[in-house]
Amino acid sequence: MATTTAATFSSARTASSTLAPVTAVARVTGHANVELADGRHLALDGLFVATRIHMASPLAGQLGCGFDESPAGPFIRRDALMATTVPGVFACGDAARPFGNVALAVGDGALTGVAAHRSLIQGL
Ligand SMILES: Cc1cc2nc3c(=O)[nH]c(=O)nc-3n(C[C@H](O)[C@H](O)[C@H](O)COP(=O)(O)OP(=O)(O)OC[C@H]3O[C@@H](n4cnc5c(N)ncnc54)[C@H](O)[C@@H]3O)c2cc1C
């Protein structure tokens, strides 16, 4: 991390350890030179940014599945047994969660298989 970043982060804290107000980024130029809306310039070694997500396939939308919105983007609405808002349609993994995680996606897959199987057997 650049010295500038560490110094800025450190100075953003007051004596009572509260964070300074968030300042918008006006623009990024060059490698990672950040100009803040308040006029400050930060020459950084690199930046991590949060990206937006979107469905890789239009299938769920075409089937009429409902979606929920997360700060990162939309994901398929489903209940605790992975059933979407369309009867007989199940969704799992990243497409049906507000965030990505391998272990959760694998678990979702197992649960979705069981739920889909149960849905085919009347009375369960
Ligand atoms: C850069 C990065 C780093 C990550 N690091 C971590 C980490 O450290 N730990 C962690 O737990 N998770 C991490 N994740 C998240 C993790 O990769 C996902 O949560 C996980 O892969 C989700 O599995 P999935 O099966 O739901 O979706 P995916 O792994 O995305 O699989 C979906 C598959 O469907 C295929 N597909 C898409 N559209 C169609 C179509 N129309 N027809 C046929 N096939 C289609 C895709 O090609 C893909 O193979 C990371 C993700 C990224 C992007």
- Strand order in space, largest sheet: 1-2-3
How much of the polypeptide forms β-strand, as a percent range?
15-25%
H/E element order: HEEEHEEH
Structural class: alpha+beta
Q: Which outline best applies?
A: elongated
Q: Unreliable runs, pLDDT <50, ≥5 residues?
A: 1-12
Report the C-alpha radius of gyration, rounded. 22 Å
The averaged pLDDT comes out at 87
Number of H/I helices: 3
Main sheet characteristics: 3 strands, antiparallel
β-strand number = 5
Structural write-up:
It is a single chain. The protein is an alpha+beta fold and 124 residues long. The protein folds into two domains: 3-43, no CATH class; 59-120, no CATH class. It is built from three helices and five strands. The strands form two sheets. A three-stranded antiparallel beta sheet has the order 1-2-3, with no helix packed on it. A two-stranded antiparallel sheet has the order 4-5. The radius of gyration is 22 Å and the shape is elongated. The termini are far apart. Mean pLDDT is 87; it is low at 1-12.
Offer a few descriptive terms:
single chain; 27% helix; 3 helices; three-stranded antiparallel β-sheet; binds flavin-adenine dinucleotide; two-stranded antiparallel ribbon; elongated; alpha+beta; 124 residues
